[in-house]
Amino acid sequence: MISRWFSQVALVVSLEMRKTFFSRRGLWVYLLALAPVLIWFMHSMIELNLRKERQALNAAHPVSTALLRSIERGATIDEVVAKVGEPFTKNEFHRPNISVAVYQYTDGDNVFAFQFRDDKLMNINERDRDTIPKDSLIFASVFQFFYLRLAIFFGCVGVFTNLFRGEMLDKSLHFYLLTPIRREILAIGKYFAGLIATVVIFCTSTFLQLAALSLHFTGSEISEYLAGPGWGHVASYLGVTAAACVGYGSIFLAAGLLFKNPIVPAATVLVWEGMNMFLPAALKKVSVIFYLQSLSPVVAPPDAKMPALQKLLVTAAEPVPAAWALLGLLTLTIVVLAVAARKARKLEINYSTD
Questions:
Q1: Helix (H, G, I), strand (E, B) or coil at 326
Q2: CATH code of residue 66
Q3: N or C: which end of the chain has fewer CB within 10 A?
Q4: Longest CA pairwise span in the chain (Å)
Q5: Nearest partner of 283 among 272, 299, 293, 294, judged by Cα
Q6: Residue 352 lies in a domain
Q7: What CA–CA distance (Å, rounded) separates 37 from 54?
Q8: pTM for this predicted structure
């Protein structure tokens, strides 16, 4: 009996794969998945151009990092120029009661801005170039607040709600219902077909994002990173991406079965996931994003521009260990799939109303 069910699930998956990967209704999912790749690629190209410009400026105005960092506040313009040479750019502002000047230098990587007031050095602003630790924090923020909450979320909405609703719109679902197969098996088979598609699409996007992000770093920097936490981070991000497809996929498969218009439940889930940071600790666990954040390898820093009132409303909850996070996510998924399978068992179609 069980072996027959497995073979039926496999048959449904094989029938659904082509429709899931190449459905016209799902082409926008590919664009949604590839958009972050383009953003990180552009970021790397901009950083490469900036590095080339800084290296060219340093060649024209050579100065070392140690020499620039040896300058102390209180020095005069003449003392600074005598020590490190002429800047690659300078801006001077003269008013009746005050004189302000900004001299900029570069060591080929970083930019140093010396701010003078009445011929005295008042402030030194050092703008470092991007490093892997800095970009890791930026990537973690984009991954957790955009990619998981929006890109994968809406991608799963598009794929999983159409597994049944799309068949109803195409008036082809009755072909499945006329076959000698349990409808619960049909629902599970469709779920795994959608899961395979979303995992392949979004995990590929995650890997390409990390590859695009690394383009502006040197080979030695990348090798050092991979020799440390790098490969672990890559594996974790791919795992979190797959876990997001598992959790959100089950929710939107059920939504496609329970609601004629899946937009309403999708909007409800979006709001619930978005307000997760403001929920009490107990309610946080009734969401997918809580477990995904617990599994993420790098903790995304909070938004520095968040209004003070919102910061007061944020409730802290300790991330659960990875094993418990996986168990919690799988439990939530199984419960939702059980609801979807129960609905599929009683599924009736009327194309005139659906």
A1: helix
A2: 3.30.1450.10
A3: N
A4: 93
A5: 272
A6: no
A7: 26
A8: 0.84
Write out pLDDT tens, residues 281-306.
777 778 888 888 888 888 776 655 55
The pLDDT of residue 177 is above 80: no
| Backbone φ/ψ region at 123: left (φ over 0), alpha (ψ -120 to 50), beta | beta
The residue behind tokens 């959608």 is 194
Q: Which ranges of 23-91 does DSSP label H, i.e. alpha helix?
A: 27-60, 65-69, 77-84
Q: How far is 202 from 32, CA to CA, in rounded Å?
A: 9
Contacts 24+ apart (CB under 8 A), 81-85: 85/61
How far CA 347 is from CA of 106, 172, 184, in Å, comes to: 68, 14, 10
Backbone angles phi, psi at 163, to 5 degrees: -60, -40
DSSP state of 178: T
Residue entry with tokens 């490190």 = 84
Tokens for 212? Answer: 């695009």
Type of residue numbered 82: A
Cα(70)–Cα(90) distance, integer angstroms: 20
Last residue of a domain, one of 81, 103, 127: 127
- Distance (Å, rounded) from C-alpha 215 to C-alpha 232? 19
Closest CA to 82 of 118, 56, 27, 121: 121
Locus of tokens 């890109």: 151
Q: Are strands 99-106 and 111-117 parallel, antiparallel or unpaired?
A: antiparallel
Q: Dump pLDDT digits (tens) for 156-165.
A: 998 888 877 7
H/E stretch holding 5? helix 2-22
The residue type found at 13 is V
The answer on 320 and 253 residing in a single domain is yes
Say whether both 120 and 232 belong to one domain: no
Query: Sheet containing 111-117: which strands, arranged edge to edge?
Result: 89-94, 99-106, 111-117, 120-127
Cα 314 from Cα 275, distance rounded (Å): 9
